[in-house]
């Protein structure tokens, strides 16, 4: 009983402390109590599945975030306090994500949450973050067309992976006829819509489009269809187990990367390890980050990651985002000297820059997404990617790409959005920064 | 068009082979011991991981086949002796118990091997493909799978119909009480057949790993495919396995070719529901002798 009460006192004191630090001066004396009771920590929630079907990838995100927190703490923490990670395991179940998010916000009173991987999980927690005005940092590449006041998106949106990739395939690989293969859910369908728009723009041709049920591992029929379609390149947005089975069977049916390369915005070093480098060699992936990226920041990142998680551990693009978004948050708290949500959302996080392993990245001042670099990697016999093309500059994120949605944009500095968001959630439930032009 | 169609029919043969390989172990256990092994998919998964370990140690699929057979047969023995033999006469509870065994296996394998996908390569001699008829070259590995499927069915038939052990098995299946009275150790027959069926699941894991993906959650899909195959073909008759496998395999590939994979899968499910309405015991359903 005493323990519970103490815990309660601690957490409520912490909020008050955070609150007072945020600038509400009248509670000055509370701040001293808070400091005494709280010790020297700033609580940050970590919400990635450590069990269940998506745990494969989410565990690596969780690991990357813990590594960043450890580094930040080793350098003295934030505002002289250590960051205390509060880890919750949502077990790959969408409903549990929502429950745990609520717990982190209301019980633990965390300053912000680093979490989620799938779009489904993000969409299940967003209403909670919007209702209770929390801050979520989301590291996955995703289909975009969303921008919530309470979420910062540090992974790539399609324009950062596709806008250069598709013309590169057409002009550099000299392959115009695309056959699209994807898993049957929202991300591949939205991605392929954009690819089709880009094909039209750059003079490519769509010769076929097919979707396989999620988790499908029998691709012989699709391969037969591809072979009769006259395709010059296969554009794949298959996910998970399907990637491994597709590449293996593609090679077994006698296709080589020279005849018919597979180009994809999804396949990482991890899947290549699972299918064997001989099945991936010569195929292309477009990503912001590869483990082989040649920069001092990346070398040291890979080294530190391996030192902590074993020498066989591999890094990938999503966990790189998980890593640098932790720094974004720490620097933002440092900047506004507060853990209060609105301070972080309006002043701390927008415009925040960081020298990440992939290069310098920045949160866009207007749309809460992140400026990233584009790279195209060709899989080599060692199971890594040789970077064959890199964007000359970082690329601005566009949650609504102009060639599909010419009349929409996302801008949190727009007066109309500001006005809408100045109303409390109970009056105005729309917390999006999307406006019609 | 016809070229592509011929390719597609050939592909269907290999898909049938894959279904037969994954279902035959389940059919043997179900048909003789009367236990629906809900952990069947996980047994296949353990076979696949065995192949992955053998691969890491430098062995290939040919080495993995006997090893996986033995490993999973021993696993089957442990499950039968530890759990199933106490509840043979309560079918609902065997369902629950084997379901539980499946979950335990999944978690234990995840603890041992971690959650990531595992790599299993195909043997060098079976890499590559050959031009048969049709448009598409045919992978050697798929020809190999067809041979494996035929051998597995043949071995099972031989065991059941040409050996003394098989004679006892058939006797137990027809009339358990009478066989017991005639001095057949029915409990031992059950145990042996459970081991044999489990071993077949192990082989399935070993030979399917090189063309599919290997993860701790892989078992579920194979289990669903296997149940559909034996339910459609008919429980208790071994001919039901290749028949059910053939109908589903060819049906799914041809429909997927005509429409697409998603609709193909959907139509096959609908077809199975209708087929079971018409043949409640499956196409080769075992009729009780009156």
Short description:
By secondary structure, chain A is α/β, with parallel strands linked by helices. Chain A contains 16 helices and 17 strands. Chain B has a two-stranded antiparallel sheet.
Number of helices of chain B: 11
Give the helix/strand class of chain A: alpha/beta
Mean pLDDT of chain A equals: 88
Adjacency order of strands in the biggest sheet of chain A: 7-6-8-9-10-14-15
Q: From N to C, what is the helix and strand string of chain B?
A: HHHHEEHHHHHHH
Structural summary, described in words:
The complex is a heterodimer of chains A (437) and B (290). About 6% of the residues of chain A have low confidence. Chain A has 2 domains: 192 residues, 3-Layer(aba) Sandwich (Rossmann fold); 145 residues, Rossmann fold, CATH 3.40.50. Chain A is 43% helix and 18% strand. Chain A is of the alpha/beta class. In chain A, strands 7-6-8-9-10-14-15 form a 7-stranded mixed β-sheet, sandwiched between helices. Chain A has a 5-stranded parallel β-sheet with strand order 2-1-3-4-5, with helices on both faces. Chain B is 72% helix and 1% strand. A two-stranded antiparallel ribbon of chain B has the order 1-2. The chains are: A alpha/beta (437), B mainly alpha (290). At the A-B interface, helix 3, strand 7, helix 9, helix 10 and helix 11 of A face helix 1, strand 2, helix 5, helix 10 and helix 11 of B.
Strand-helix topology:
The complex is a heterodimer of chains A (437) and B (290).
Chain A: H1 2-21, H2 28-38, E1 41-47, H3 55-74, E2 82-88, H4 94-106, E3 112-115, H5 119-131, E4 136-138, E5 151-153, H6 158-162, H7 165-171, E6 177-183, H8 186-202, E7 205-212, H9 220-227, E8 233-237, H10 241-252, E9 262-264, H11 269-275, H12 277-280, E10 284-287, H13 296-309, H14 317-336, H15 341-348, E11 353-356, E12 359-363, E13 370-371, E14 375-379, E15 385-390, E16 408-410, H16 415-422, E17 434-436
Parallel strand pairs in A: 1-2, 1-3, 3-4, 4-5, 6-7, 6-8, 8-9, 9-10
Antiparallel strand pairs in A: 10-14, 11-12, 12-13, 14-15, 16-17
Helix pairs in contact in A: 1-2, 3-14, 4-5, 10-11, 14-15
Chain B: H1 2-33, H2 40-56, H3 61-82, H4 91-113, E1 129-130, E2 138-139, H5 140-162, H6 164-174, H7 176-181, H8 186-208, H9 219-233, H10 240-258, H11 261-278
Antiparallel strand pairs in B: 1-2
Helix pairs in contact in B: 1-5, 1-8, 1-9, 1-10, 2-3, 2-4, 2-8, 2-9, 3-8, 5-6, 6-8, 9-10, 10-11
